[in-house]
Amino acid sequence: MDKSPDSPSDSELKILLDELARSSRILRVFSHMDQTDPEVSNASHHVLKTLKTREPTHAADLAQSLGIGTAAMSRHLAELEQTGLVAKQPSKIDARRHVLWVTEAGCERLEFRDRLRLERMRDVLPDWDAERLASVAHALSELNATMIRGIQSQRTEQFGNAENSDLG
Fold it and tell me: Which residues contact 100 (CB under 8 A, 6 or more apart)?
C-alpha cells in the first residue's frame, strides 16, 4: 500500500494506538468508579444509553448502530430486560422481530448514572473549558465513526458480512 504525502507516518499511528489503549484503560477505571449497580455491566449501560436515543427500535438496528454483533447485542439486552431496564413487544410489521424501548426504571438509572459521571468528570477536568471539551469530543466521535466503518468494511471483505463485528 502506497502512502500519500499527507498520510500519517507509522510513528504517528503508533502514538495514536498507544494513546487509545491508554485511554481505554483509564476509561475502564473511570467507569468502574461509578458502577452503582452490579447487575448491569458498563457495556450494557452503553447499550441502554444508545437505545434511549433511538427508541423504539429493533435489536439488529441497535447492534448495527453500535457496531456490535447480534450475539453480543442479545446478551446485553437479556441483561437489561432481566433487570427491568428495557422492555420489548413483538413488532406489528414483522413478527420475527421485537420493538425495544427503555422502561421508566431504565430512564431513572440513566439519569442517575449520567449525573454521577458528569460530577466525576467535572472533578477530574476542572481546568478544561467548553471549547476544548467540544473539540476533543468531536474528534473522538469522528475517530470512532471512522474506525467502526473501517472495521466493518474489513470484516465484510474477510467474512462476507458485517455480522461478525463485535465492537461493543
Answer: 51, 55, 56, 57, 58, 59, 62, 77, 86, 87, 88
> Which residues lie closer than 8 Å to 8 by C-beta, 6 or more apart?
16
Render pLDDT for 116-131 as a digit per residue (tens, 0 to 9): 888 889 999 999 999 9
Q: Are 80 and 48 in contact (CB under 8 A)?
A: yes
- Rounded alpha-carbon distances, angstroms, from residue 145 to 31, 67, 96, 136, 148: 21, 9, 29, 14, 5
What's the predicted TM-score (pTM) here?
A: 0.67
Measured distance CA(66)–CA(122) in Å, rounded? 26
Helix (H) or strand (E) holding 36: none
Q: Taking a C-beta distance cutoff of 8 angstroms, is the pair 168, 76 a contact? A: yes
**What CA–CA distance (Å, rounded) separates 72 from 168?**
8
Task: Please name the residue that has the C-alpha cell 432481566.
Answer: 82
H-run or E-run covering 9: none
